[in-house]
Design brief:
Elements (H helix, E strand, L loop, with lengths): L1 H7 L2 H5 L2 E9 L5 E8 L11 E9 L2 E7 L7 E4 L2 E4 L5 H19 L2
Antiparallel strand pairs: 1-2, 2-3, 3-4, 4-5, 5-6
C-alpha cells in the first residue's frame, strides 16, 4: 500500500531526476534563499518542460516567496499566503522572476 502511494506521486521519476542547479544563501537576519532545479527523465503533464523546481525565500517555518511545480498543481508561485499560477518560459526567466519578487517584497516592506 505504501509503495502504491509512493509510485502514484512519482517517487521513481523524482529519484531518477538529475539535479542541474542548487544554490542556498543564508543571511545574518535569518533569511534564506534556496533554489533547486532538477531535469526529469521525461516531460510530464504537470511539467511539460521536463523540469522540477523549488525556489524558496523566507526563514524556518515561514515562506515569503516560493516558486514550485509540485505534482497536480503545475507551475505556480507563492507570495506570502497567496498562490497564483506561473507561466514558465525558461530557467533564466524563472530565476529572474523569483529574484525580482524577492526585491519587490523587500522594497514594499521598507516603504
Amino acid at each position: 500500500m505504501v509503495i502504491d502511494t509512493i509510485l502514484k506521486y512519482g517517487y521513481n521519476d523524482h529519484m531518477s531526476a538529475e539535479r542541474i542547479f542548487y544554490d542556498k544563501t543564508l543571511f545574518p537576519e535569518g533569511l534564506i534563499v534556496e533554489m533547486v532545479i532538477w531535469k526529469l527523465p521525461k516531460p510530464t503533464k504537470d511539467r511539460p518542460h521536463g523540469l522540477k523546481y523549488r525556489l524558496f525565500y523566507g526563514r524556518d517555518g515561514l515562506r515569503i516567496v516560493g516558486y514550485d511545480n509540485e505534482r497536480g498543481k503545475g507551475d505556480h508561485k507563492h507570495i506570502n499566503e497567496v498562490e497564483v499560477p506561473y507561466k514558465f518560459v525558461t530557467v533564466e526567466k524563472l530565476v529572474a522572476d523569483f529574484l525580482a519578487d524577492i526585491e519587490r517584497i523587500k522594497h514594499e516592506k521598507f516603504n
